User: Fold this.
Amino acid sequence: MYMDKCINAHDTLIGSRGAPVSVAGLRKNFKKFAALDDLSFDVKPGKITALLGPSGCGKTTALRCIAGLEVPDDGEIKIGNTVVTSISKGTLLPPNKRNLGMVFQSYAIWPHMTVGQNVGYPLKVRGRKGSDIERQVEETLSLVGLGGYSTRPAGKLSGGQQQRVALARAIIARPSVILFDEPLSNLDAKLRARMRFELLRLQREVGITSVFVTHDQAEAMAIADELIVMNRGRIEQRGDARSIYMEPASEFVADFIGVSNALEAIVVQSSSEAGITTVRLSDNPDITIKSRARCKLIEGQRCQAFVRPESLRLSSAQTTPAYDDNILEVTVLATQYLGNTIEVEVRLGNSELRLALEPHHHLAQGDRLHLRMAAHDCILLEGASR
Amino acid sequence: MTTVSATNLQMPEERSLISRLAIRFSAQSRVEGLLFALVLVILLISVVLPLGMLALRSFQSEELTAFTLANYIEIVDNPRLLHGIVNSLLIAAGTTILSVFLGVALAWVNYRTNTPGTSIFSSLNLIPFFTPSFIGAIAWTLLASQNQGLLNKAVIALGASGPIFNIYSPTGIIWVLSLFEAPLVYLFVSSAFRRMDPSLEEAARISGAGLFQTAATVTLPMALPSILAAALLIFVTVLGSFEVPLVLGIPARFNVLTTELYAMTSEYPVRYNMAAAMCVMLIVAAGLLLLIQRKLILSRDFITMTGKAYKPSRVDIGRGKYLGLAFNLVFVLSAVILPIFALLVTSLSPIWTGVIRPQTFTLANYLYVLTDFDVMRRGLKNTILLAIVGATLGTILGTISAYLVFRSKMPGRVFLDVLSGISLAVPGAILAVGVAIFWLGTPVYGTLFILLLAFVARFTPYAQRSVASSLIAVSGEFDECSRVAGATWWGTVYNIVLPLIKPGVVAAWLLLFIMIVRELGMSLFLYKTGTETTSVAIYLLMIGRPSATAAACIIQVVIVLSIVMILRATSRKDELML
Ligand SMILES: Nc1ncnc2c1ncn2[C@@H]1O[C@H](COP(=O)(O)OP(=O)(O)OP(=O)(O)O)[C@@H](O)[C@H]1O
Ligand SMILES: [Mg+2]
Assistant:
């Protein structure tokens, strides 16, 4: 029985292939403040694209422009082959003509309706027959794991249930795109992790193009096929989770995504081969390290070296370094045992570094050890602005 | 880098300013545009033009021949008018002081101490807020007139050598007005108390401050912005109040600005332009004071904007709690029980001589008022008609403008808000003078329509506030979600917005109904034979027929209080805030 329903639901929902979205030259000023500053990106059909960035960087504004809830000052937005917003052409499709689904941060579950009425609303306003609506509501509710909830009043649902209802409402009319505005941020940590998986599963099943706004980088990396990192209304970098984490294109991205150690440095010898560049640390003129440049750097140029805490290793014995390794002498300053890792703070000359080590290490404050840092893990970016 | 982005930023702004404005307008629903225009036109006709007419006429001579400052000069030169100004200020100041004292003390006793019975008194204390103040004044003439007042008879029976109360006096006016304004202070201050984090007081206690030291250094200073805001509001309201000075001041030959205004427009020779000049002066004064009041309210919200309501901690005041109970009792006796008692016994007595004789009680007065006194019969019909139509129109208009101001992105919505707030700042009597002068000489003058227009103009902002408080509490994401889900503008308003704000709309309708039923000031300026309201009928009855008047008052109070009951059952207390 249950299986039947699920398969039925799939039949009706999978049919919709998502539409691509393209955003070009979007600008939006609030008074003189530029919330969106020449924002351009496109979203691949059927995939999840995350807009990621710190609070106030314009993620919600961008999403609302796509939804038609906000009118940009300039720019053009296309959904599928339809131009939905174009300031220069004077086109502005109202939100209800854009065939979208949206999950709001607050979920916006209408408290004066039942769960079923909430979920069925998009069909009702599209003029579907009552019996059709009932059937599809039941199918969609069971798809999000709320089968049988249809007649419940919507006012008294738990956070996770509200989230599911919002999701069901967003997908029921088979929109060409679903927009998510921080849909998980109101849930507690455990539920958030679970809903993350469910969301992913559901999106894979339904295959609707999704734009997902969040300021939580772990969430974005877990869910999205492609990440767009935003800062001050602009795009800093786009790519999949791995490339953004491993190959940050700017100081901002390196700093915003995960935890990084940043070291000011001056180029001593520019890329010889495989992008390996030797730099001298500004705070410790007698220390040079080999690192990997993300762009062409010339000798004497100031730059910054970024290295992730988990790509550093400690050892007590002096080993001969491989060609692209750095072995540096450090002193342990402090350790924190966190169960799955140990966070260690070490002093390297006049700088401090953070490490994340496996939990079996036993370290004491004041230990003098050798730090091992592969050149490949140490990324050089130009422009030491700080 | 920076130069490039700077020029990019400039160019589109200059190039397509007009087309961007055009798209901004096209983004609004056409319905919203039409509604906006509708509200604007109605505001123009009912508020802006009448007030503009006042301003214009105030600079014209009575014959409309020349522009002149003579009217303003005469106000300052005429000793009688100057007296009126001084008297108005006196009454306003006295009432403000007394009602603030009463209101703050009541709020403190009922929300901050362990005085018994506060759950009952916290509602009872609000009753005067809903009942017409001129009925309170009439009731107090029965209680405290020099010759026949029940209280005077009581003190003489207790051994006093003569009457000690005289309600027909400035003190009497201040007393009655204070009883009716104190609940407003009480509402303001108790809501401030409720939003105050009790740990602030606890911290003071732990730091070593005593009970009263804590009240004086923490509780009161934190409530001070609310108290000042309420005080200013009361000062302005009393400055423009008309009914109580009319009932209690005229017999004592004690005139205030509004009663002078009434004399000027109702006694021969009618001096409309002179009246207009006085109105303009009052409007300017009221406007300035209300601006200050707004600033205070904003700063109050800033202080207590923690959002949640706390359960206030109550202080054990020892034996003082019996004092608190006595205080509550005295207030409720003075403001509610004694007046209603006096009206009841008077209305049941065949002829009122100041002596209660239960064996002679009769319903003849009610019968007379309801069947024989045709002004009252007409009045009832007119009032019910005006209240139903006026409350409906006002609620529709108020709902539309609340929606436009708080939900649409209509350019100009702030302007609309300011415009619709004007009539809150203008005392009813003055708006009525404006409306009267504006329609003078047209066929509309002297019809029920002109009363309806004035009521809608005056009371719509209250409906707007009631609806707006519901609207603000409902997240905008509810409607946005509906639009994205595919619903049209109408679909969203009908399916989502209206159902969610229904309590606010219902409360607004009931509130307006009450306000129109109990209205006297504006009606007196605008009624003609045939368009009397119940309040006007009571006023006309007042001279010489105390028993029938009392019966009519009881009828009026019953109508108002039964609507209040419905209102209280359907909405939260603090949504009723003026
Ligand atoms: N209606 C508005 N009026 C004025 N400023 C606004 C408005 N909406 C957004 N802003 C401003 O524009 C900027 C971008 O806002 P936006 O809501 O898009 O940020 P966000 O990236 O979604 O942030 P968050 O993660 O906090 O939700 C912010 O600085 C915000 O203050
Ligand atoms: Mg946001």
Summary: The radius of gyration of chain B is 26 Å. Residues 235 and 344 of chain B are 32 Å apart (CA to CA).
